[in-house]
Amino acid sequence: MFQWLNRLSLGRGQEDWFVKALNKDFRELEFLALDLELTSLDPQSGDILSIGYVPIIEGFICPGEGRHCLISEHSGVGDSAIIHGIRDCDTDDGHTMEEALAELHQARQGRVLLLHHASLDLAFLAKHDNSYSSLLAVDTMRIEYQRRNRQGQAVANSLRLNQCRERYHLPTYKAHNALTDALATAELFLAQMSYMGGEERMSLGEVLSLSR
């Protein structure tokens, strides 16, 4: 089962634990919900301003283990401050990218990455660490895209994080930063899994298939 995932995982150099976890129920595994705040949506010209992440362990979110890290190395916040509220002065005492990536690397050991719009954030991370260009991750945006597409529902302009959360009756967070968005992504993921599978067993391979 999931031979394509086994081949893809091995071909991308995924760690052994990941390949062995493909047939395990996702509730038995640990995930790391991850979000970035960016200066733009273009990985070539944009910069990472902050990194937020929170783990999910055996189906439970662990907010107390969440982390929010501001990055001091960037070319300037610019107009993106309107969206995320981060000012240049807020990042003056932030971490270097090397420090932030080292912390993230430690936090994601033995955990499956979980993101909303994974391809975008992984592309930004890959600028600084090429290993992110080949990582397999669960994408709540792709899960929602596939679900709405199967149901014949409109997909365009309906996949923002808050829009997806509203369909599962999840509240909107007033505060907006990478950590709260990581938490919001974790909650959305568990709501999606509950909606699709309830208490039935669902393997990591099945979850990854849903987010292709």
TrEMBL record:
Q: List the EC numbers from the record.
A: 2.7.7.7
Organismal lineage = Bacteria, Pseudomonadati, Pseudomonadota, Gammaproteobacteria, Cellvibrionales
What molecular function does GO assign, one term? nucleic acid binding
Q: Name one GO cellular component term.
A: cytosol
Give a yes or no for keyword Nuclease in this entry: yes
Q: What domain of life does the UniProt record list for this protein's source?
A: Bacteria
- Cross-referenced Pfam families: RNase_T
Q: Does the keyword ATP-binding apply?
A: no
Keywords, ordered alphabetically: Exonuclease, Hydrolase, Nuclease, Nucleotidyltransferase, Transferase
Q: What is this protein called?
A: DNA polymerase-3 subunit epsilon
Domain Exonuclease stretches: 30-198
| PANTHER family in alphabetical order | DNA POLYMERASE III SUBUNIT EPSILON, PROTEIN NEN2
Known SMART domains for this protein?
A: EXOIII (SM00479)
